[in-house]
Fold these 2 entries.
Entry 1:
Amino acid sequence: MLGRVLCERYELEEKIGSGGMAEVYRAHDKLLDRSVAVKILHEAYRSDAEFVEKFQREAQAAARLSHPNIVNVYDVGIDGIDHFMVMELIPGSSLKDKIREEGPLEIFTAVKIARDIACGLAHAHANNLVHCDIKPHNILMTPDGHAKIADFGIARAITESTMTYDGNVIGSVHYFSPEQAQGGTI
């Protein structure tokens, strides 16, 4: 996969992560001459209409958001049979990695990170989106210590007609809200 160019524009340079639905690569945007992150739907799911829909929903939901504490989405597309999304590349690591490497955070640092996350979530909520999977793995830390929310993979647009998840349990069980675990309104 490395060296591959998606849509004659995004050259995959290095695999930098993998999640339940997709793999993430550092890539070079040949048109704008910048580094980006490209999320490509796992091969096992690209023929599954439900997973493709979730992946596309992630891109559409995240692309509507513009906030300094949310990872920017630049583009979405299909190259052959691969569905992909192009995002801002955040140099650094996740909050999970930071805690694992540094241990318990200083109070000032923890409050600063919590404030960044709360500001990003407030923006998402103001745009009728609930992330549904906020956890240290999905918080990326910038080199200057700010937090950015990533992976709106199971975010859902909250409308009057879609207030529940039809009984499906979606998210990371250790981080569920009580109403999410019960399949209720989030």
Entry 2:
Amino acid sequence: MPENMSRIIPKKEIANMKIAGIIAEYNPFHGGHAYQIEQTRKAGASHIVAVMSGNYVQRGEPAFLEKHARAEMALHGGADLVLELPVPWSCARAQDFARAGVSLLHAMGCVELLSFGSECGSTALLCETAQALESPEMRDCLRGCLDEGMSLPAAREKAAAQCLGKEAAALLQGANDALAFEYLRALKSLHSPIRPLAVLRKGARHDETGCAEGFPSAAQIRSRILQDNPQGKKSLPSFSFEILRREITAGRAPVSYSAMETAILSHLRRLSPADLALLPDISEGLEYRLYEGIRSACSLGSLFSCVKTKRYTHARIRRLTLHAFLGVTQGDTALSPPYLHVLGFNDRGQEVLRRMRDTAKKPVLMRASGLRTLSPAAPTIYRLNACATDLFALAMPQKQPCGMEQTKNVVRLSSTG
């Protein structure tokens, strides 16, 4: 840490700090994200910490632009400290994504609130329903639906309708509410004192690309930008657009998954069913279906289409494919992130970092040199993340050399308020 972080915070200042955490992708940071931060401050938060996906996101693709640029957007948009959710968990299924994100906030030891977007906007309703979803009756019903060959999301929704009623099933239809249940489950499993805070989502739903009133979704914004639609600029806060324009001018954005296609297919063709069986979220012999799909597919699109079934969703296949390419295994995602990796902070974020000197249950990593003092698992995860970043650099419009993980500096901004 910088030397000036060693200042002791007065007790009065500590007492007045109320730190809230947000788990996000910011791909890219848009008005809806700024609105959530604003509402979280209105709920009493004095400091906002974002646990943000690194260079790969949960839909099983590289992020639209590099993680430090997205962290910079978040700091301009109201976040005070940005920590990275490393690659094994950033592109994992919702359960692992949420568990890892919550574990990082819990490990800070000073976070009081977990703020998340919600289609229903009711913290009480989500907590009540989350408890009901864990009932023995619900588990039995879910098992029966899975035995019918349904995917887990579809089975859970059907089981909720049968056991808990239409209102509970409707909550599972919203991507944000469904993820909220995973956050609540993670908080419970960790016996965390962090309290949940649902913020009503306004505008397009997650990954929705059609028109909607209110804030457009990140998917809608990415589509507009790729199509050179003037609405793309209008969809972003001015600071986000300027950072994006800078990255585009430098040849670092937008990052294209299609640019990685041949490399991914080439790597996949080297894998055996035994190799694929080591991937996260593999079960029921799916490795053999995936192997056969790899042998016949000449594009990622055809691979996803031929492996997908009612049981195995498109998103699940995309994540499996990306994990296989990046070398992520079940053993990686079964762990929790071994350190708190700082991507950026402002003056208030620096206050949080000072507070964490006394409260953090995991080491804070500012630069690669700090790995020498960490647990044996930490270098393993860091190397995996660094390798994934080197591959990410090949998907930029202007390909970058290896080493971005080691050479990119922590983003440092001054607070404006």
